[in-house]
Amino acid sequence: MISVEGLKVEFNATPLFEDVSYVINKKDRIALVGKNGAGKSTMLKILAGLQQPTAGVVAVPRDCTIGYLPQVMVLSDERTIWQEAELAFAHIQEMKDRLARLNQELADRTDYESEDYQKLIEQFTHESDRYNLMGGDNYQAEIERTLQGLGFERTDFDRPTSEFSGGWRMRVELAKLLLRRPDVLLLDEPTNHLDIESIQWLEQFLATRANAVVLVSHDRAFLNNVTTRTIEISCGRIYDYKVKYDDFVRLRQERREQQQRAYENQRKQIEDTEAFIERFRYKATKAVQVQSRIKQLEKLERVEVDEEDTSALRLKFTCSSRSGNYPVICEDVGKAYGEHVVFHDVNLTIRRGEKVAFVGRNGEGKSTLVKCILGEIADYTGRLTLGHNVQIGYFAQNQAQLLDESLTVFDTIDRVATGDIRTKIRDILGAFMFGGEASEKKVKVLSGGERTRLAMIKLLLQPVNFLILDEPTNHLDMRSKDVLKEAIASFEGTVIVVSHDRDFLDGLVTKVYEFGGGLVKEHIGGIYDFLRAKNQADAAGRLDSVFVPGQKKEAAPAPVAEKKGEQQWQAQKELNKKLKKLERAVADREQAIGETEAAIAILEQKMATPEGASDMALYGQHAKLKAQLDVLMEEWDAASTELEQVKGEAAH
Asked: How many CA atoms lie within 13 A of 474 on its CB side?
């Protein structure tokens, strides 16, 4: 649908990327990935028509509709949640008004036999059919499903948007985009303001009901569950893979290894050829052979190894001292604002060295309990006890926005550094990819990820033994998140992480506290242990309830519900077996494709040598491998298509 040809973008005469070409096809699910600052958001703006490239063309068909969700937008506060969502169907309201006018005109006129009256009837019939085909008055149900899927309650629908935080208002904008069903959906970090249940609902919507999707996200699990194609922007170029993110990471590494081997082989051949030329350059008896070798070198197509971004973030939290055995104990803790009870009867004990997660829908009290622990909220009920010698380091959800924008990166750290640390500020900044001129940048020009890293440096300089991190991964790229995860895992103190990022929490936390309905429930195990248990509990009444938060469960006689639950469980079990079989088939084909491509590359290197150029057997093997590769690609495509269909069945 959208064709990108020879795209180039420059900032201050420095290319961000150049000579970029690719096509977005109908039903594509594309992950746009790369480190912070690589140009992902810029690419989305260009596709949306909001920014012009330095060179190149983006061809969009005239009838193609595009929906774009930026990371930050200016939001209106003049309507209710429902009225804002209804704007997605403004075209239907216009059609309804037009039908009303036509109907009134038919009622007012009396020239029933005239040609104009017959044309008016035909126009009314045509418009009425179109109105019914587009859903007519049934769009209200679609609005309700979408708003509830994104976490809104029915009681929220008539509340003005001004009563909601920026994150919730971003959900309204996302709902409007989804309801419009554009041909191409461009999403820039759509999960930043969503909780886990809403992310899972969005995954199912995008995977099964959306048209073409191009999204930027640093949520690895979200990318793997939604996308089937990965475009990487790296070092000013793009690399297009027809696979999900995890497979892309593996194939990218394999590609570089193959290129490196081919490069080394070719370099040796070149050195041998140059040595032959140098040795026999002045021997008349070897003149013909020398000239032949010189021409071979001139014609040789040099193997290139993709440039790799080797900049790295090194991060280590140092535990300042040993705290008591139980840094936090809550006994019947409760907090209410007037008649609104945030949570009640909270009983939890966090032991020294534990790493726990606070999860749940936004507004259920995760940040409120954190503020109680920090002492920022004191008017709670019950008893909250901090252990002996507890020193807390806190990273707030909006920590990056609290930085002084008028300061430089260096000055920001210089103001909090003390003692010997002051002599090592530039070393510390270099470790966080703020080396050289980057340390003199003003905070106001930093990207979201850069601001988050800078805020992390400030936290590192505090002497702490208890870390509380509220959404620390927002705006961090994949590599920075992995480094942060490793740093938290190796931290010897106690950690509370408030996060919706399943991949980040996986393998990091050993206990999950679920916030919801005024309660805080303890779940022993990792994040996926918790999600599996939650899904199984919900499956008894409704398999897809985890993807439609807020929907009320209808009562049913216990025996019938149990029987239905057992049948659904068996059906889900069979579906899971089929999914695993297909996933294995796809993985096997992908491995075989990689091996075949590697074999072809080796053959082509041999064919490029003087000896290989005349070896007809090599050409026969090459043709055979090419045919084998075509078959494997067809089998992979068929298995992938069937896998997506089965995933769609599982979602319903």
From this structure: 27
